[in-house]
Amino acid sequence: MTYRVEFTTAAAREIHKLPRRVRDRLLDAIEDLAEDPRPHGAKKLVGEKTAWRIRVGDYRVIYDVFDDALTVTIVRAAHRREAYAR
Asked: What is the rounded distance in angstroms from the CA atom of residue 61 to the CA atom of residue 86?
């Protein structure tokens, strides 16, 4: 099964602002989520029903997985010190 990957407006803006090398690595990892939304090393966020995170170097990608709609929604992509602050 292939999942559809969507970005929130805020996540797309955050990714666009990152340095090109980091952005390319993140986009490769995000692209892989379409095939496996819960890859080895992915962690479920405590207190959330659908939220997961993956680690890409010093950066974190926070996303929601909706199995019934086969959709992965990227919510946040930021450096680890900023990823969880809202």
From this structure: 14
